[in-house]
Amino acid sequence: MKRLHESWLPLIRMMLTAGRGRPVALVVLFGLSLLNLCSELPRNADRPALVGSLDEIVRDSFGAPRQLLFDHYQRRFPRIPTSQPVTIVEIDDKTLADVGQWPWPRNRLATLIDAIAAQKPVAIGLDIYMPEPDQTSPDKVADNLPPTAAGLAAQLRLLPSHEAILARSLSASPSVLGAAAFDHSAFATSTDMRSAPIRVHGTDPLSKVQRFSYVLASLPELQAAAHGQAMLNVALEQGTVRRIPLIMGLGDKLVPGLPIEMLRVATGSPVVDVYAERSGVQAVGVADVLVPTQSDGDFLLHFASIRSTLNRYVSASDVLHGKVDPDRLRNKLVLVGLTGSGLTDMRTTVLGELVPGIEIQAQMIEAIFEGRYLRRPAWLKSAECAFIMMFGLLIIWYLPRTDSRLTKFIRAVPKASAILGLSVNLLSLYSCLLIFKYFGLLVDAASISIILSAVMGCFFSTALLGNEAHRSADVARTEASEGKAQHPVQPEIPERTRDNMEA
Q1: CA distances from 213 to 128, 194, 218, 439 (A)
Q2: Measured between alpha carbons, how far is 503 from 500 in angstroms, rounded to an integer?
Q3: Is the distance from CB of 230 to CB of 172 less than 8 angstroms?
Q4: Is 427 helix (H, G, I), strand (E, B) or coil?
Q5: Cα–Cα dist 67/237, whole Å
Q6: How far is CA 4 from CA 8, 16, 338, 355, in A?
Q7: Beta strands in 260-332 (DSSP E)
Q8: What is the DSSP string of 190-250?
Q9: Using an 8 Å Cβ cutoff, are 70 and 350 in contact?
Q10: Could you write out the DSSP letters of every residue in 353-419?
Q11: What is the pLDDT of residue 150?
Q12: Which residues pair with 253 in a beta bridge?
């Protein structure tokens, strides 16, 4: 091991000190910049397993610190709601204690929808799946009666089914049914559902968006009665919700997410417009609302704290008993969802808060309504790359110069390198934080700091190795001088003189 260390150390030292460290710094700059660019390439589910594993490693190298930084932006400056276009009618513990346990008979759910519709909301979205027939429906009850109750069974079959009652309520109100997309087949899933037409402007984006093969949707009778169908899927990254698909693929067709479908029904638009280029989706819109998206159709959500949105919740029990102020529902986008104990699909936001899934849908609608978008467009990534390359090349050209003021400062002040690196990183972080606050742009200060710090570190390492080499040479010279002083060289005595001395 010692021989290996002695053989490799001089080689490494030579590589780091060659050309005053510039070649190594150039390799680090271009290598890390390429790795950073690859970490944001669109995902491809068709890649081989080995390539997919390498893809995850590449993404984690810069993706993890990038996401943590963007989360810090939001925690430092969360969205402050300026309006309340959404009201959530929650089936909470109070409602379950008053009305009965979940799932309810469909006619009872129809009563709730009728009570909401009576207050004239602009749209009603149901975060509820109903893929199976209601077993409490009169015809289902009649099927389970014994032969001795044939007369009662006949009378029950004359009554409308609970699905028919709910379908009438859905048809009479501006209703939107939710559905969930799956990659695999599961109980009660299907391969298609009814949805509004999608009008594509530009290149077909089906290959760029998230695609699924199966969907858990409500019964066809209920789908036909509702005014809209939409996906409720959210994108999870390390267990945290940061984005929601506005548009996604189901088989060979595009389907909308719940927020954009709610706006379509509210505005009476016949279609959802998707604007796409070869690089992917650029925006999704309905009527005069145009929402910028990522290339895969995802919407980056700027979260508000749950503490600032609690007043949007009303209990379904209060709605059924007429105890809710009509203005809480009139001209509102109303979402109906479960928040009762054991029924809620809880999600973690970037603010570190655990919220019901219906709250995330509401926040997205609210952000679109207010025009509060977070954006990370392709041109911003190019601008970051250009800045990193220009600043990195400037460092590589200027820092190794022996006559530069910066080099003299670093040599004169022992902690100058640490001070310089910390100052550059803090300035970069603060600038990106201000850009986020005032423009809603997600600038990746993490990658900028990592790459430029690595480039500067190459020269600091070179300086340390150079100083070590100088110290080693000085020590060797000192030891040589001390050796000569301790063992002076005796003058050579001629042979004849030496003989006379011996005599």
Answers
A1: 20, 15, 16, 37
A2: 5
A3: no
A4: helix
A5: 9
A6: 6, 18, 66, 57
A7: 272-277, 280-286, 289-292, 298-300, 313-315
A8: BS------EEEEES--TTTS-EESEEE---HHHHHHSSEEEE---EEETTEEEEEESEEEE
A9: yes
A10: -EEEHHHHHHHHHHHHHHT---B--HHHHHHHHHHHHHHHHHHHHHTT-TTSHHHHHHHHSTTHHHH
A11: 86
A12: 250
Q: How many CB atoms are located within 10 Å of the residue 37 CB?
A: 16
For range 391-399, the mean pLDDT: 83
CA atoms within 13 A on the CB side of 326: 4
3-state secondary structure 258-277: HHHHHHHHHHCCCCEEEEEE
Using pLDDT thresholds of 50, 70 and 90, give the confidence band for residue 50. Answer: very low
| Partners of 240 in the β-ladder | 237, 348
With vertex at residue 148, the alpha carbon angle to CA 144 and CA 149, rounded to the nearest 5 degrees, is 55
Q: Which two tokens stand for residue 475?
A: 């020590």
Q: Which helix (H) or strand (E) holds 337?
A: strand 333-338
Structure confidence by residue, pLDDT tens digits, 58-70: 666 788 889 999 9
Q: How many angstroms separate the CA atoms of 153 and 71, rounded?
A: 60
Amino acid at 169: S
The structure tokens 């973690």 sit at 348
Long-range interactions of 466-472: CB distance < 8 A, separation 24+? 466/17, 469/13, 469/17
d(CA 14, CA 19): 10
Residue 244: Cβ within 10 Å count: 25
Show the tokens assigned to 503: 């005599």
Angle between helical axes of 22-38 and 49-76 (0-180°, round to 10):
90
The answer to whether residues 189 and 182 touch, using CB atoms and an 8 Å cutoff, is yes
Of 362, 118, 113, 116, the C-alpha closest to 262 is 362
Is the backbone peptide bond immediately before 292 cis, with ω within 30 degrees of 0?
Answer: no
Which region among 53-67, 218-232, 386-400, 447-461 has the lowest average model confidence (pLDDT)? 53-67
Does an H or E element contain 63, and which?
helix 49-76
What is the model's pTM?
0.81
Written as six digits, the tokens of 46 are 């068709």
